[in-house]
Design goal:
Helices cover 37% and strands 21% of the residues. It contains ten helices and ten strands. It has helices at 19-26, 57-68, 72-84, 100-112, 130-145, 157-163, 181-186, 204-209, 229-241, 256-259; strands at 8-12, 42-45, 118-122, 149-153, 166-171, 174-179, 193-198, 214-218, 221-226, 245-251. Strands 2-3-4-1-5-6 form a six-stranded mixed β-sheet, with helices on both faces. Strands 8-9-7-10 form a four-stranded antiparallel β-sheet, covered by helices on one side. The longest helix is centred in the middle third of the chain and has 16 residues, at 130-145. This is ABC transporter, ATP-binding protein.
């Protein structure tokens, strides 16, 4: 498994698949039975419940800053990140008074600050409001643009599909599937194409030309699906000759969540 610079690599799997164990091995929190981990400098976002709760958010982040030996400019970044995540006014409150989502934001900030080659974000947006989750992911994009290697774990498959460059699917501690979004979605499956037409006043033509393919008729429109592109083209030609109007024609976009756990 390679976590490459300038890429967001995601680990996906059910609870117990081995995602957290793998992160612990990368960080030397656990001893490995075999194999080898090669890494340079890494910053990690741990579980939000592992912070020192008697500290304020500001005290905790400054404490982490000292441990990381980061620059004054990076320390100032704390306040910019807190502001972007809507918790700047809460930094002087004790962490034990924070909601779970606020704790996640503090954990995210402490992982983000400092100059490292690689960053690990373990379920960063879980339990976080939608707007803040979006902002967090945009911050990860900024790290990516700076050439940083990012390892992300998430149960939000739509989020994984939108932001990941490469995915490893884990099951019982083993990699059962890997690749880009496109590779995983289309693995060993023919693409599905759809043709949508306006068929006002000639509904009977649908039964004549759409034999053997899946289609849906609604009002004066028909949407036809097939993985046989040649057949779909022939149907389109015949329907146009009969006076049909093409509304749309193209490859159906599969969702990662529709295929990623199939037969795994």
């Amino acid at each position: 498994m390679d976590i490459l610079p300038g890429k967001i690599t995601s680990l996906v799997g059910l609870n117990g698949a081995g995602k957290s164990t793998l992160i612990s091995l990368i960080m030397n929190f656990k001893e490995k039975d075999s194999g080898e981990v090669k890494r340079t400098t890494v910053s990690v976002m741990p579980d939000a419940e592992t912070m020192i709760e008697d500290m304020t958010g500001e005290q905790f982040l400054k404490f982490i800053s000292k441990l990381k030996k980061i620059s004054k400019e990076q320390i100032n970044l704390i306040y910019d990140l807190a502001d972007s995540l809507f918790i700047k006014n809460d930094l002087k409150k004790k962490i034990k008074s924070y909601s779970f989502g606020m704790k996640k934001k503090i954990s995210f900030i402490q992982a983000y600050i400092g100059e490292f080659d690689s960053y690990i974000f373990d379920e960063p947006t879980s339990g976080v409001d939608i707007e803040s989750a979006r902002i967090m992911m945009n911050h990860l994009i900024n790290l990516k643009k700076r050439g940083k290697a990012i390892l992300l774990t998430s149960h939000n498959i739509d989020e994984v599909q939108e932001f990941s460059d490469y995915i490893f699917l884990l099951k019982h501690g083993e990699i059962v599937r890997k690749g880009t979004i496109e590779e995983i979605i289309n693995k060993e499956e023919k693409p599905i194409y759809s043709l949508k037409l306006n068929i006002s006043n000639f509904t009977e033509l649908v039964e004549k030309y759409c034999s053997g393919v899946e289609y849906i008729v609604a009002d004066n429109e028909v949407e036809i699906y097939s993985n046989d592109l040649l057949k779909l083209n022939k149907i389109m030609v015949e329907m146009i000759k009969a006076g049909g109007l093409v509304i749309s024609f193209g490859k159906e976009q599969r969702k990662l969540k529709d295929v990623i756990f199939v037969n795994e």
